[in-house]
Amino acid sequence: MEYAIEVKNLYKLYRVGDEVVRALNGVDFQIKKGEFCAIVGTSGSGKSTLLNMLAGLEKPTKGEVIIAGQHIEHMEEDELVSFRRENVGFIFQSFHLIGTMNAVENVALPLSFRGVPRSERLKKADKMLDLVKLKKHKKHFPNQMSGGQQQRVGVARALVVEPEIIFADEPTGNLDSHTSEDVMHLMQDVVRKEKRTLVMVTHDNHLAEYADRVFHIIDGKIVKIEENHHEKEESLQEKDEGSTGKKTERNPVKKDERVQADKNNKKEKERA
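Given the sequence above, the corresponding structure tokens read:
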């Protein structure tokens, strides 16, 4: 079995005054290549700390982090910067688009750090925007796009460097529930088509249903790992579409559930 990510006996301790806080408390798991995994937990559960460890943004107190076959826990900062540039893509909650650049230019930006010639990077960016269904918005600036469209640009930007792994930190945190579902469908489909590994951090159990596997984290420990059987759901969906002639929603969420989800998201942001 070939793994994109391996985590072994991972600990992260912080000292707050005289108290030692265990942000991560002995975490072990593997993520296969091409897998979409969600790490789910409430604020303070350790999910963001874990994502930072996987991305090499923080160093563990103890344990091993193996990404794309390389141990990153002992890498120096310049090695980590180079490693992330070559192997990792990021999708952020707040989009982080450059306001003075249009969609194509924003997507092409990571390629400029690799020294890719302008004509080539714009061509690749153009292709990625087609992939995320923004063909008509390539010349639009961020303030001319909706939140959902901006996040699609963010997804295209993460993909343009052809990363081994994509990390997504609350990628729908600034979107309403309907737009969130659209973006999640997009991420799910694109990851499968491009055969990328995606690790998403979220507090939303509804969004985690789009992942192949869900890691539940509480107090710095992975307490449960669930599998979502999308293939079975999709075959049933196709059968239903064939008999009724109507397209069914892959992960249907009732209107009242969407409203409640929006309320919960708002409360979570207020607590954060």
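The longest strand covers residues 3-16. Try to locate this feature in the token string yourself.
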